[in-house]
From TrEMBL:
Keywords: Dioxygenase, Flavoprotein, FMN, Oxidoreductase. This is 2-nitropropane dioxygenase. The keyword Flavoprotein applies. Transmembrane segments: none annotated. It comes from Lichenicoccus roseus. GO terms for molecular function: dioxygenase activity; nitronate monooxygenase activity. PANTHER family: 2-NITROPROPANE DIOXYGENASE (PTHR32332), 2-NITROPROPANE DIOXYGENASE-LIKE PROTEIN (PTHR32332:SF20). Pfam families: NMO. Gene3D superfamilies: Aldolase class I (3.20.20.70).
């Protein structure tokens, strides 16, 4: 057999092996590849979501603070751009969660992701009784077991390497704790993933697939501002740091993003707010609100307006692997090829 033909034959074998490794995830999502797009507010809308799904992955609309009418329009607009499966991410603390679930069910969305907290029994029942599959986030093994028991059809375990709101534990540790223990439902991994060979390692540990956000945020189809994407290309992993809390009495929800003038001003703002609290100028409640309101609208300013110095440039540590702006289909093909090449190297 000629060398080129032999190589092609080995690649077919390696690709078949990869397909077996993430077969459970592919079947659950109904996709060619078990790769989900992370739900990123202002970024994961119709254009990026449909691009991920059309490329063989699984796009996920980030509902964020949308109301029911706006979400319904976004779902329909996404359907107009793709006939492939996609999901919707809803925040459990949204005051209109029940109505948002109803919108998803009426629109026949096949998968609903409940994020930002442990979903209530009522929310779980509403999703499942409506015929959709429920995906939930599990930040610890005890919660993973509870969610699997109470009706989640799949889980995402997201490490602290991820961008945006994060938990305290890395994916490396979460994967070791959770993947061997949760076998009854698919478990997808997320946080700091930027290469296909890394995804392959997680599949071999028992993951059903992977979720990526940062690389897709800098894709051609992402509506993020050019300055936002350029900041990703320039950045290294060590530029994506979690927000800093100065005083335990005033908790700051950790958010990972690129360090900029805004993050520096936030430290000054916290210190000044603490001074005003200690002098009696502010009550504890007022001081907490002063700190929480600092970032109000900051993500939109960065993503949509391109204010990458004063806005919140949320990014995971995989941002160092974003070296150019690429079409979504190219990113997914690259991830798959990296996994296949890793299998070929082993065979060799």
């Amino acid at each position: 057999m000629p060398p080129d033909a032999l190589l092609a034959d080995h690649e077919v074998t390696a690709r078949a092996q990869l397909d077996r490794l993430w077969a459970r995830g592919r079947e659950f999502l109904g996709t060619e590849f078990a790769i989900l797009g992370g739900a990123m507010s202002w970024v994961s809308e119709r254009h990026l979501v449909s691009a991920i799904s059309n490329a063989g992955g699984f796009g996920v609309i980030a509902c964020g603070s949308m109301g029911p009418d706006l979400l319904a329009r976004e779902i329909e607009a996404t359907k107009a751009l793709t006939g492939k499966p996609f999901g919707v991410n809803l925040i459990t603390m949204h005051p209109q969660l029940d109505d948002l679930i109803r919108v998803c069910i009426e629109a026949r969305v096949g998968h609903v992701v409940l994020a930002g907290g442990i979903p209530s029994g009522a929310a779980v029942r509403a999703v499942k009784d409506g015929g959709a599959k429920l995906i939930a986030f599990a930040p610890a093994l005890v919660l993973a077991k509870r969610l699997a028991r109470t009706g989640a059809d799949a889980l995402v375990i997201e490490g602290s390497e991820a961008g945006g709101h994060i938990g305290p534990v890395s994916l490396t540790v979460l994967a070791q704790e959770i993947l061997p223990q949760i076998r009854d439902i698919p478990v997808f991994v997320a946080g700091g993933l930027g290469r296909g060979d890394a995804i392959l390692g997680m599949l071999e540990m028992g993951a059903a697939g992977a979720q990526l956000g940062t690389r897709f945020a800098a894709s051609s189809e992402s509506i993020a501002h050019d300055r936002y994407k350029a900041a990703f290309v320039r950045a290294s992993a060590r530029d994506a740091l979690p927000s800093v809390q100065l005083d335990d009495r005033f908790p700051v929800i950790p958010v990972r993003g690129l360090v900029n003038e805004g993050t520096k001003r936030f430290l000054v703002h916290q210190a000044e707010t603490l001074r005003r609290f200690q002098s009696g100028e502010l009550t504890k409640e007022a001081a907490q609100l002063e700190i929480e309101h600092f970032w109000a609208g900051a993500l939109r300013r960065a993503v949509i307006d391109g204010d990458i110095e004063g806005g919140s440039v949320m990014a995971g540590q995989s941002v160092g692997m974003v070296t150019q702006i690429q079409p979504t289909a190219v990113i997914i093909a690259e991830l798959v090829d990296q996994a296949v090449q890793a299998l070929l190297r082993r065979a060799a």
